[in-house]
Amino acid sequence: MADSWSSDTGEAIYRSRDAVKNLKIRVRLQRVTSTAVLSQQLQQQVSAQQERGVIELDTFSNQARSAGDHGDDEEEQVVGWQEKLFSQFEVDFFRMESVCQNPLDRQYHGEITALERAGGRRNCRIFTYTDYDRFTNLEEQQCQSLMTPSKAMPTFLVERMGNIRHRRQERHPVEGNVAKTRPVTWEPSAEFVKNSHVINTPVQTMYIMGDLGPYGKLGQKENEHVLCTLKADSNGVITVKPDFNNSKGPYRLETEGEKREVWRLTLENASTCISQEEKEREQRVYKDLYVRHRDYLNSLVGQDFEMPPPGVLRLLVNGEVVLAKGYEYDNLYIHFFLELPNNWSNLPFQSLSGVTQTCRTRTLGKDNVAFFSYPFNFETFFRKEDETEESLPQWPVLYFEVLSLDLWQRHRTEGYGYLVIPATPGCHSLTCSTWRPLECGTVAELRRFFIGGAPELEDSSYVRVPGTFKGDRLSRFGFRTETTGSVTFKLHCIQHARAFVDASSLKKRRQSVLDQLGGFSQQGSVYNVLEAFQRARRRMQEARESLPRDLINTTATLGPESTA
């Protein structure tokens, strides 16, 4: 008998797009007695042997049923979501109108009075506590469950989530005009973390309870035990603890006390299945909804891509300042800007510079690391002026400066660096080393330590050869530097270009064809003129076939205007 019990009493999580009000659970509670165990064993033996002992088993079973405790050993109920089944304690409690304190209590009083007039309640031991009851306003650890091992210790998450029991009667309106004096708590206490820094998605809870007291002594709070806990939120997530039995054996419940009675619990999903016609209609509704949503998104995006003008390269850079490590002081921030070489331009309203937030460092290994995760983006355009040049001359350069700021407002320059935007599109992760100018002498180091400040570059582009430099060589003789840390960037580069056709080469090709046509026409021979005309016409057709379609259309539209 012990081998058929189910020991898996953990919770199960289900997701449903159907309304939770359609959920129904069949709960079967049966007391396990010595007579019932012996009867089950005899039934198994007789069914296996198929002998005449079946008649004796029938007689024995009738005697066992007659010897039961008033037929109170087994009960089965089908419970719906938030369906109220009163216990004997609630019937005795709400029978008196004087104990009613709120409209819900008075509603229960009226329902119990109506049940007594109709002949009593249909349930005996199985009852429920809904999300609105005052008796469900308990902590999860205080709910007594006989299926939880006595030596089980609550986990860290259970302790932190213990106070997230949002009941409707506890929800008080918060005045919006009360200003918070401390929006940020720099040193939160353990109680503050427990109450505020947890995910508290509001859920509705329902308990299916069982009164496992002896017959004639029902209605005592110490005999009430949790049989099943149901939770549901607005996202369609339903939590059942313990899970439905399905093909597993029943759950074992054992009471405490002198008798230590054993009960058998079975949970089944008794929800009505949707019919095939309703299922098909629901699928059609969802399909129509998805199609409309897709059409709406397509209307927002459009059918045509945004094309740059011919001969223009469009460069989109979505970047991120990931981290900085290896620097001497804490509270780092980074100032950066993008330098555009010749023939590059950007949108007028777009800024090509930025400053990150101040970030504290943490020790990882031997380095102090500051995680910024600061996003930025640039959009630039390149147009060729010299069409004979095939490759791009230069790419934009990202210059950056790492600084520190402490509690006493002391600024220090921690390092300079630069990053050339990659010429290939895609995702790039780049780590750039930095350096800072160094001043000789002990006085400079003492000044840097006590009051802050250090030698700085007037122009940060001198970290590299600046774009405005016109000489052949840039001399840094006598300029002392010190290697500091490094900064890691992550770049997502997108290049967008449109096919470019040289208009001057097209004009030269046309002129050569016309010259050949004119030279042959001067010979005076009609035959030679026609033959030259045919050759020129074939060359013109070959020239037009080698050109892109968009250029042909543009030439056709501009022809009448030029002649006018």
UniProtKB/TrEMBL annotation:
Pfam families: B9-C2. It comes from the Eukaryota. PROSITE patterns: C2_B9. Keywords: Cell projection, Cilium biogenesis/degradation, Cytoplasm, Cytoskeleton. Its main location: cytoplasm. One of its GO terms (cellular component) is MKS complex. One of its GO terms (biological process) is cilium assembly. The keyword Cytoplasm applies. The keyword Cytoplasm applies. It is found in: Cytoplasm, Cytoskeleton, Cilium basal body. This is Meckel syndrome type 1 protein.
